[in-house]
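Review form for a predicted model. The reviewer records the input and the model, then writes brief findings.
Reviewer: anonymous (R2)
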Amino acid sequence: MKFTEMIAGALEGIWVNKLRSVLTMLGMIIGVMAVIVIVTLGQSLNKQVAQAVEGMGANSFTLVPEANDNGQKGKLTLEDCKLLKSSMDSVDFVVPVKYLNYLAAIETIRKKETTLLIGTSSDYLKVDQTGLSQGRFFSEAENQMARRVVVINQTVADDLFGPGNEAVGRTLRINSLAFQVCGVTKPVASLLGAQRSNTFIPIKTLLDISDDQEIQQAIVRVKKGDQLKAATVQSVSILEMRHAVKKGYQAQTNEQMMEQFSSILTIITSVFGALAGIALLVGGIGIMNIMLVSVTERTREIGLRMAIGAQRSDILIQFLVESATIAALGGGIGSLLGIGIGAVISWILKMPIVISFGTILFAFCFSSGIGIIFGLYPANRAAKLDPIDALRYE
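Model under review:
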């Protein structure tokens, strides 16, 4: 029997026993679908983070105070940022960032919202992909004078002043203090589609209304890419000497942050992918079960084929082709569902839609391989049947 005839016979058997075949393929469908959805979401999230990191610039790194083994923690202030800028020729600019450890209340007569309040300098937009939809970012002069001006998110602007209304020039209150809106940023989706509602004010203004003068991080931009590594080491050394603390600071380049995130995401995706792969094994067991039933039902057919000259290898290959066909169909259906569901979830979460054809091909081949492996025992059992006993089987 030709290979094409074997496939045609397998498809005919699937069509004749539709319900049984669908139930048999269900495990393969669910397993392949789950694997592709998980991998798709992982790659979409990875791409979104990569885009966010690229928006910060390749020649940048972030300085963050941390506690050392002795419990001593570094400090970071505006004076430290000025010192880094003045003492390092390789530094283009330093952007200080301070945020409240709680959500700030932002309100108008119309509505009240909560938001993450961030204090920074006028250079912030140079290291962040946030764009403006209205107005402008506050100037360095406004920062130095600690003016109460604010840049809000477009979503927050629509909530506070109404969709389509001009927000620039309007007044709102942040923690009961009056601020004037000078700009509105475009809405930007954060990780997993959570809409960012960050609110920006001059860092000196935030220092005036906060309880301490320390900042959480500083983003440093160097003039040339080849100066990046040396600048990270030098900046940490300067801060450790200034504050007399060893290992009290961490300097991470954008590339390092991306690699760290990618490695964590890869582990998470692998774990969930392995759990989803269990469904594939369950599907393989289902295929073995149904093929054993098929061997029993077709015992007389097997005996008749052997009686007219079919070799044991022909019988073995025929049943392997049938089990592989069932698995491949389940894998194909699961792949299509996985692509569709993964794309829909990515779209809902406002993440980039990434379709990995390599993953789809691997899942399809893997499911077919499972069909062959779990179909091997029933096929071998069919091939070893005695033709005379098979013909007598009722």
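Findings: The first strand starts at residue 60 and ends at 65.
Further findings: The chain has two domains: 3-52+260-392, 59-253.
Recommendation: see findings above.
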